[in-house]
User: Fold this.
Amino acid sequence: MLTTKRYEYLSIDKIGVHPTIGNHRQLTQSKISHLEKDILRNGLLEPLVVWERQSGEYYLVGGFHRMEAIKAIRRQNPGYFDRIDVRIVAGDPDEIRALNLKLNADRVDTKITDYFETVIYLNNANWPTDRIAEFLDKSSGWIDEILKFAPMINQQLREKLESGEISWNRAKEIIQKTMKAPVGSEKSVLDEEIAKGQQKALKLVTYKTVISHFSKIKTQHPEKVYNLHINDLYSFTKVLKGKEYDDHDIGRVKSHFPELINN
Assistant:
């Protein structure tokens, strides 16, 4: 069972890198440089996450950009950050790798492609869909969609998903059209659909509708309180924008504001 064992002020030299646990997003030098300045000015505000595999044996699980920034600081300032704040976790190898993947994916700028490896890995490790969904704070339907469509997404389509040129809904539509294509024409249909790019998305709600709705609530129920998770707000903004939302985002909005989305 994945647990936090303790927080500790640990010698940086004791923290290693496990061969199967690494940073699954390419390290960005500009981000490292920014963190280097920030850590020098403000200190390490958030502990690194390390796995204690055996007593006294530690491996980095989360915080790879910050670790590189600290290493850069130490090269210029010997003696700085000889010890750092860490959160020490315990769990079996599958759980630790899952946490590593989750920490890499669980960022504000996360794209759905960042979850592909995590979801497929956990599925191959025989995690039930509902367990994966709970672990990643997603719906089971969202997980099922990744398991269904992600293995069929080629490199070209993946790159367009990552760049934002094509939404997840549009990518699913492309895959479905490809699967329904006559035998032997799959590749040409796929290329044609990718070339079309992002088609106009269905805008479920408008700013005017939202303002009108909340103005009415403010007048009729001035003491009304909403309890929202940050992911609820993030999903709401994507649906309101009318781009890059998926069924999971729609579900979150419906759960809090069902009257805004009737279909």
Notes: The radius of gyration is 22 Å.
